[in-house]
Amino acid sequence: MPHLPLLAGSPEVTDVHLPPAKEWHGFDAGAWAWEPAAWQEGCDALIRDAVTRKLNHLYITLTIADRCVRHEAELSRFVRAAAQAKIAVEAVEGDPRMVLTNGLSKALDRARAIARYRANAPADAQLAEIQYDIEPYVLQGWGKPPVDYRAWSAAVNALARAVGAQVHLVLPFWVADEACGVRFLRDVEPSVKAVTIMGYRTEAALVADLARPLLHWGVEASKPVRIALEAGPVAGETPPDRISFLGNEQRMFDAAIEVAQAVSSWDSFAGISFHGLSWSLR
Predict the structure, then answer these.
(1) Which among 84, 78, 73 has a CA at the least distance from the CA of 59?
(2) Which is nearest to 271 in space by CA: 167, 199, 188?
(3) Domain 29-281 is classified in which CATH homologous superfamily?
């Protein structure tokens, strides 16, 4: 389009400010605590750390043996104590081999154990959701059977059936950029309650931009979408400080505010989650 010169006396627009679609009030925050000892042995300390960081969700790993959730008394105590601090507790499961026959069989046994716990636990000791962070794309041969999107969607749907409820799915930001990924999202949609995007970058504007395709999917599918940031070590990445905040939690929290403000107009945006907080590295 040709540039047209301004006529004498014409106003010149140098900047445009558009008000956000909805007023900014802050964001819902969550974090992973992968070591079971964190809630089994350090229940009070973990909750205290979560309150200090103003977290609303904790994602914890359960101990499961002989197809049963172990340490049920400690788990019930932790969930109750977290609820008193207004923190919801989710169980997180994750292994790339869940898309393979043997790995899925083990994962289904664990899912059924979690389902039994949920069926028998008192109302005040209930896990809020079950989260699956599978990441099959790290396996050798990704993209071709038996390690592909079809195997991934089949695993997600099977796990949701075993749990007896929709699941919270953790996904890389690029999944909605690929045609196969779009089909995957369509295939798992009935089994998914919520999605967390691994937006592992340290530039807030870039994180917001990378999250947009899945935020759009969340609007279309009526699913809440969270965005995760990373503070832990990252192996094999060049440069790592582009991916992770490398232990600088304050810088990550500051970036989270920028990310949340940038995407707050999306109806699907449900909050920010933090990976690699200091308690995960003890």
Answers:
(1) 78
(2) 199
(3) Glycosidases (3.20.20.80)
231 φ, ψ (degrees, to nearest 5): -125, -5
Report the alpha-carbon distance of residue 214 to residue 259 in Å, rounded.
15
**CA–CA gap between residue 273 and residue 141 (Å, rounded):** 30
Contact between residue 31 and residue 274 where contact means Cβ atoms under 8 Å apart: yes
Tens of pLDDT along 229-253?
Answer: 999 998 877 799 999 999 999 999 9
Q: Where are the domains of the chain?
A: 29-281
pTM for the full model?
A: 0.89
d(Cα 163, Cα 165) in Å, to the nearest integer?
6
What's residue 281's pLDDT? 57
Residues 92/95/100/102 CA torsion (nearest 10 deg)? -80
Write the DSSP symbol of residue 270.
E
| pLDDT over 70 percentage in the chain | 90
* Amino acid at residue number 192: V
Instruction: Report the 3 state secondary structure along 75-138.
Output: HHHHHHHHHHCCCEEEEEECCHHHHCHHHHHHHHHHHHHHHHHHHHCCHHHCCCEEEECCCHHH
